[in-house]
Amino acid sequence: MDNPNNLVWHPHTITGRDRARHNAQRPFVVWFTGLSGSGKSTLAGALEERLFAQGHRCYLLDGDNIRHGLNKDLGFGDADRVENIRRVGELCKILVDAGLIVIAGFISPFARDRAMVRHLLEPGEFVEVHLNAPLAVCEQRDPKGLYRKARAGEIRHVTPHDMRSC
Prior knowledge:
With 166 residues, the chain is α/β, with parallel strands linked by helices. 43% of the residues lie in helices and 14% in strands. It is built from 7 helices and 4 strands; from the N terminus they run H-E-H-E-H-H-E-H-E-H-H. Helix 4 packs parallel to helix 5. It is globular, with a radius of gyration of 18 Å.
């Protein structure tokens, strides 16, 4: 097995500050968190459209889309949710270094995971937006049918903090 101690960070000439200056914007992350059905994807998409129309360089990371590719090997238990957010946090860090405004929409139920992402970035580069929609409203919307399936016992791990009693 390879030894991680053999890894050395290779510095490059162009810095994140250079990219931000080149893009004529201050890069940062807007992190939408909340239950499934709370409106994260809808609001994140609207924000991306608005920023893009104003000429900003931005990128939207959607929780479901990320799980189709980068994180398709992860499930929805607590450990996999933590790893999902860790990987997304590292991706956010890269995209901010690239000079982009990152819009992220993830259930991300654990405050410690969101704090981990915040600490990957410089102060002021992480804005957290919690969509505090009531569970009843999210269940009524249920755009993916997750709550219905959870209540029927067809799936587990919909959201660790609100659906344990299904």
